[in-house]
Amino acid sequence: MAPPSSEITPLDYTRYDFKDPETYRVRIPKGLSREVVRRISQIKHEPEWMLEYRLRAYDHFVQRPMPDWGPSLADIDFDAYTYYADPLGEEKPKRSWDDLPADIKNTFERLGIPKAEREFFGGVGAQYDSGTVYHKIREDLAAKGVLFTDTDTAVREHPDIVRKYFGKVIPYNDNKFAALNSAVWSGGSFVYVPPGVDAGIPLQAYFRINAKNVGQFERTLIVADEGAKVHYIEGCGPAGEEILTGEAVTPIEGIQTGQTVLNSDGRTTTVEKTMVRPFDGELVEITPVSLENAFRLTPEHPVLCVRAENVPEFWAGEGVVNDGTRELLGLTPEFVPVGQIVPGDLLHYPINRTEHDVPSFGDAAMALLGYYLSEGCVQMINGCEAVTFTFHLDETEYVEDLSRAIVELTGKTPWVNRQPAKHAQVVGVYSKELFAFCLEHAGKLAGEKRLSKTIMELPPAKQRRLLETYYRGDGNVTQLGDVVIHRVMTISRQVAFQVQELQARQGIFATIFSREPFEETMKDGRTISHRRLYTVHHRLGSDHRTVHRWGDAFLVPVRKVERRPFRGNVYNFHVAGDNNTYLVKGFSVHNCTAPIYSTDSLHAAVVEVVGEPRAKVRYTTVQNWSKNVYNLVTKRAVAYENALVEWVDGNMGSKITMKYPSVYLKGRGARADILSVAFASEGQIIDSGAKAVHSAPDTSSKIVAKSIAIRGGQTSYRGLLHVAPGATGVKAAVRCDALLPDELGRSDTYPYNEIHEEDATITHEAVVGKIGEEQIFYLMSRGLSESDAIHLILMGFLAEFAKELPVDYALELNRLIQLEMTGAVG
Fold first, then answer.
1. Do residues 341 and 460 share a domain?
2. Higher pLDDT residue, 68 or 233?
3. Does residue 104 contact residue 61 with C-beta atoms inside 8 Å?
4. Within this chain, do residues 42 and 152 fall inside the same structural domain, yes or no?
5. At what angle do helices 493-505 and 460-474 cross, to 10 degrees?
6. Is residue 425 located within the same domain as residue 530?
7. Which of 145, 156, 169, 175 lies closest to 220 in space, CA to CA?
8. Beta carbons of 216 and 13 less than 8 angstroms apart
9. Does 590 map to a domain?
């Protein structure tokens, strides 16, 4: 396919999961009736012909039964939705971003629309729930006669064009959901490209659903007049940022659906959905007084903090202490976009309040684990499991303390091997049970040690004993006047952050800094490589009040704010419950990205495309819906003499999708090219396909459908190829390829071929395949991991689709599938 010459680009509806307060000028109560339909038309000041059309559609919707084929839709309650919610009410869409209400403007600023308008696009449209809030087209395109506006405005300002085409490609009685849309439609895009015009630069439209249980029923009408060309595309924190899970710090790109993380209340919550998107811009890097807790976020990401202007001056200082003040307790942290954070603002660091006691883990077990974390290792000695600890010769007190713990836990007296030449003594015991205990709850190898979830959730009093013995081994104490400085050093990053978290449970905020790895050449010529060393540090007795206790949290000052360019994927996720927050490097942030609700949502759009003689239209959609969405869409095009219509249709996400983009070839020499892709994972049914209806001679069509079903997901190809009587010389090809990476996915094919002319050239092929072990073995033999090998095979399978996408969408598709393969996308 040739590159498009003009584009309209509405991004996918579920890429950003923030939600604004529901402040609407007009909002109709839930439920559907003739009165609701009349009210919608009245609000829009529509002409009488449109009201009559809506009412006929409503009557047909009520009378027409639900489809008895395809996935079950029995759970849809049409009275559970609000069919109209408009933030601007009767005001016209704005022509300047500055004229928008602040909350809506901020929403679309967070989506990057003004920047996109300035730098890339010939026009931009934005829809917020039922209402179009903004529309603007470049003056040079408008001078060519290109019309690009919302459909509501088009009904008022371009009635002749709208009435000529509206409902002609998809009549209201086509199907039940086309009737629903025709009755309650709101918003959508209207595009008209005059004869012979090539816009040459993209147009872009954005759709935003903000409110709970507000269905989206946009109506899109695209008309490319004779010889015109148009292309329509529908369509956090960076990798490496670490999330506190209550057990460890985990890179955000590794967070998976179903995993537990800590929220701003210091409680564990469950991840319901993860998200990824490409980003090209500046990230904001926040460095607090604890240097290793620095983090990066996209500028719009909300961070919980107390603003610097509210902080009393006497709090300034370089020290770190942990006592509270009455003045501080009177302040309330607020969520602020990280791009607005300044040095001196106080970040919210909650204390982990999750607590589960294990009575059998007493003083001896905690003491031993602390010593093991600093000085111990597990090893096989003469084929027997052994646990050993290495101390300095002078640390007799510690050896005796450890020995008592070993005797209490195992009933065995440990052996002690003194090594004067090395100024060391080794304590050891043969015990299969102790060997397994240390492995499970503290790991092995100095750089890979980490405390288990069980240990991290014990009562603080028990954890205090572990910290005491751990600091004996790897720590030191320095006194400077009245100030006592405690330090502990480790090469395990996980242990450093876990110790910081454990100290917070003791009422102490400890800072972390690190020393870069380096190589050292010894006098005898040997080279020693030193790994990165983390120091966890806190001081007691200081008069400075830089860090303050605030209830069950600390408020930690920002030392430095920097902006750095970044191009790549950024990540985000949504958690269960009302407190939709999580902790980045220990600090409270809000989910920044359409809102996700526990109740089902309904999307029933209608798209009508008209390709007049010799016109070229391409419609591309890449949608990644939340798993609570019924995506029931009717999309159809007509192509007249020598026109070309191309559908590039990608479907990921949703609870149920039923979508079959169609082309009716009504003129001699008309062509259709349809490329459809479906990816279904657990809990998803994607019933998609394509239709090509040949009503004129010498027409041609090509349908390629690809699907992947994994982890119990279901995909179906449902297609129609129809050659009408009199449509001679038709050439048509259909190819259906399905891939089942595991034993749980399901793929079905339901092709319908109706051929009424003998000279038609028709080909149809369908292939269902699995990933061969020899393919995986070959790629792994070339150095790839198993998951990377499978991902590479899947992207090769979808390459025909991915190469037709703009680069940002191709990158996002690649990453979404990669995360699905690791269970990281819901």
1. no
2. 68
3. no
4. yes
5. 130
6. yes
7. 169
8. yes
9. yes
What whole-number distance in Å separates Cα of residue 187 and Cα of residue 189?
Answer: 7
Residue length, the chain? 826
Let me know whether 234 and 106 are in one domain: yes
Q: Sheet with 700-709: list strands edge to edge.
A: 131-137, 123-128, 203-208, 7-8, 229-234, 616-625, 644-653, 671-680, 700-709, 731-740, 761-770
Q: Is residue 106 part of a domain?
A: yes
Question: Would you give the DSSP letter of residue 741?
Answer: S
The rounded distance, in Å, linking the Cα atoms of 249 and 204 is 39
What is d(CA 189, CA 193) in angstroms, rounded to the nearest whole number?
Answer: 13
Which of 235-239, 339-343, 532-536 ranks highest by mean pLDDT?
532-536
Asked if residue 387 and residue 344 are part of one domain, the reply reads no
Whether 475 and 423 map to the same domain: the answer is yes
Q: Is the Cβ–Cβ distance between 719 and 690 less than 8 Å?
A: yes
Q: Which residues contact 239 (CB under 8 A, 6 or more apart)?
A: 251, 252, 253, 568, 569, 571
Q: How far is CA 473 from CA 386, 391, 446, 491, 688, in A?
A: 20, 8, 13, 14, 63
**Residue 214 confidence (pLDDT):** 55
Task: Check: CB of residue 269 under 8 Å from CB of residue 282.
Answer: no
Residue 260: give the domain boundaries: 14-19+247-349+547-595
Looking at residue 550, its pLDDT comes to 84
Q: What does the alpha-carbon distance between residue 644 and residue 613 come to, in Å, rounded to a whole number?
A: 9
How many structural domains are present in the chain? Answer: 3
State the pLDDT confidence band at 472, using cuts at 50, 70 and 90.
very high
- Please say whether the beta carbons of 660 and 69 come within 8 A: no
Q: How far apart are CA 729 and CA 81, in angstroms?
A: 48
Does residue 391 lie within any of the structural domains?
Answer: yes
* Same-domain pairing of 161 and 58: yes
Same domain (yes/no): 317, 372:
no
**For the chain, counts of helices (H) and of strands (E):** 19, 48
What are 125's two structure tokens? 């449209």
Q: Tell me which residue of 673, 629, 635 sits closest to 652, measured CA to CA.
A: 629
Domain boundary among 193, 208, 239: 239
d(CA 141, CA 65): 45
Question: Which residues are CB-contacts of 25 (< 8 A; sequence separation ≥ 6)?
Answer: 86, 87, 88, 89, 90, 91
What was the pLDDT predicted at 20?
42
CATH of the domain at 557: 2.170.16.10
User: Out of 340-344, 395-399, 605-609, 730-734, which region has the weakest mean confidence (pLDDT)?
Assistant: 340-344
3-state SS class at 108? helix
- Residue 804 pLDDT: 63
Q: Are 186 and 218 in contact (CB under 8 A)?
A: yes
Q: Is 237 within 8 Å of 295 (Cβ atoms)?
A: yes
pLDDT at 97 (0 to 100) = 44
CA angle at 608 for the pair 124 and 152, rounded to the nearest 5°: 50
| Enclosing H/E stretch for 462 | helix 460-474
CATH number, domain at 475? 3.10.28.10
Position 222 in a domain = yes
Per-residue pLDDT, averaged over 429-435, amounts to: 96
